[in-house]
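step: validate -> pass
step: tokenize input -> pass
step: predict -> running
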Amino acid sequence: MHRDNLDTLLVVSRDNVYYLGDFSTLDPTDKSALILPANDEPTLLQSKSDENVIPKDCWVKDRKFFGQFYIEGAANNEGDFRNLAEGVCAILKAKHLKQIGIEDKSIPFELYQTLRKSLPDCDFRMASGLLEELRTIKSDIEIDRLRRAARMWEDSVISVYGQISEGMAESAVANALKAAVASRGGDCIWVEMGGLVGFPTLPSENQLHRGDILHIDMGATCNGYGTDMARDAVLGEPNDRQRKVNNALTYALKKAVESVRAGVKASDVFKIGQQAVRDAGFPLYWRHNIGHGIGLRCHENPVLTPTNQIELRTGMVINIEIPYYIKGFAAFNVESTMAVTKDGSNLLSTLDRDLYVL
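step: predict -> pass
step: emit ->
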């Protein structure tokens, strides 16, 4: 904030209020705000309905409320302000904050209009990039949460593999995955399949038969942090073509992972992964990216593309994935999560990358 000459950050997205303020609304559609000055104590502004949701050990001690929420017997059912916009304006005025960094990618337009009208002397600056930069580097606590989320993913998939039999529909597999994730304290975000058609799709009513590829690419959250991995299995013994594709992808993933260390460009990791598939017998293989960062969300910066010149830094956590979609044959993808270190990476996911035989 000092580098960017900001008096304060006005944080309004649910992810970043949680990241910086240790608070999430009960209803994901509800709004809250964190006013985070560079040289003063922060203020958390939340709906009156969320007054009893905030963690007791939340580090933000100055909390204000907006709106009304009636609880019989409560001392006060009225918030400090009528609405979020009124509260944000009042707090910024009271703290005499002028250079205000806003989440330009997330701030509601109506709130932004109100701020500009009510605070004409303030300089509002785009700060989404600052927050994205901050979130790319994970603390040890975050890396541990991402590791536990990855293990939850793996345990869920392995448990469902044991339930699959011939004639089972993809949709039934997906439902079993969602239940397995929930039983382990996670929340499933998506389940992508498509092994029966050759490209990523939502789970269908198509039934699995011997020789079919079961492709699973699933995103979930656990303890507030994301997990996103992909693995492939085959019902019965795989044929030579299936083995060849999977072997090429696991080889490419290995080479890409070996290239990861602090100081390496995202584009170089991409080039190594794509070229490895070509070297393994698929010279026409092409991808637009082979991975992405992961954190509070399953897809974050940096993205591993052929043109992204950003250098990987110690503490980044990235997913490398090597998909191969062959229409009419099968969809394949192997994806793993790792934390970038000075000399390489620490794998947070441990599940075998070979074709799993069901």
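step: describe -> The longest strand covers residues 330-340.
step: cleanup -> pass
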